[in-house]
Task: inverse folding
């Protein structure tokens, strides 16, 4: 049976220039490969070593390992990324709201997700309205909706009042939603909208009997807990909160070198003898 490898992308495998955490002397910095261009500008990177490891993982073949990018990005944002190695057959976008198969949305899966959200959560319109009235324009740069599933704000983080996030978390929890602060973005996401549910669906379809995962944010916690073994870097929401679990390894690496370490662990786990 194949091993399913589900990984978050941003600040887990790929990194913006601001998130690279290149703390070593310049002469010892790793060579980088750009894997995303947006509006004609380079945006996201991984190390050349990570590129090699990811290619090796993909070349194991789906009878041994199924690599599944698992992101909160929308489908359009995910399509900007050009990862090295064989193109993944499956991808999880919009935090589990879309399951892509060979780059195309599985509409049956999406319909099942949206029906559950309608039954269990306050509507997106209510959450959007609350964000628009409660967030101060002094520190909000953009209001965005992702694939008609959840909302997020682009902010000036240094101006964000700490109490506002706490109040938003309580407000959202009472309505079946959760919030997450990642870099310069505040996400408001329906609680049933999870990467783990989509990961289990891919495992069912591929017959995978073992799962590996990695992620750095609160929105990745369910994915890490659902895997047989998982890793988180020393940066991000989960690290800041000291979050861990018996099957989750907290790595010492930060930034783009954490992505390299995670891919080494994925490759080791995918090739290990059961």
Result:
């Amino acid at each position: 049976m194949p091993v399913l490898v589900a990984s978050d992308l941003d600040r887990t495998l790929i990194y913006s220039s601001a998130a690279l955490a290149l703390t070593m002397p310049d002469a010892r910095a790793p060579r980088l490969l750009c894997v995303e261009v947006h509006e004609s500008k380079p945006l996201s990177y991984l190390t050349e070593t990570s590129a090699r490891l990811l290619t090796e993982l993909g070349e194991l073949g789906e009878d041994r390992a199924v690599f599944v990018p698992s992101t909160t990005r929308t489908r359009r944002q995910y399509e900007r990324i050009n990862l090295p190695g064989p193109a993944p057959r499956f991808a999880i976008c919009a935090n589990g709201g879309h399951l892509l198969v060979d780059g195309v949305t599985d509409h049956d899966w999406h319909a099942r997700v949206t029906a559950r959200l309608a039954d269990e959560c306050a509507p997106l319109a209510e959450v959007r309205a609350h964000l628009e009235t409660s967030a101060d324009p002094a520190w909000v740069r953009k209001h965005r909706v992702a694939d008609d599933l959840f909302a997020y704000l682009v902010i000036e983080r240094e101006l964000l009042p700490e109490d506002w996030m706490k109040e938003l978390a309580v407000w959202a929890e009472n309505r079946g939603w959760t919030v997450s602060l990642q870099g310069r973005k505040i996400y408001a996401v329906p609680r049933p909208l999870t990467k783990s549910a989509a990961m289990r669906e891919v495992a069912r379809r591929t017959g995978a009997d073992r799962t590996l995962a990695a992620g750095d944010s609160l929105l990745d916690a369910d994915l890490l807990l659902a895997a047989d073994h998982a890793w988180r870097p020393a940066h991000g929401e989960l690290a800041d909160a000291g979050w861990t679990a018996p099957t989750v390894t907290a790595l010492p690496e930060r930034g783009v070198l954490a992505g390299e370490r995670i891919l080494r662990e994925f490759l080791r786990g995918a090739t290990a003898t059961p």
The chain has a mean pLDDT of 96. Residues 218 and 261 are 20 Å apart (CA to CA). The radius of gyration is 18 Å.
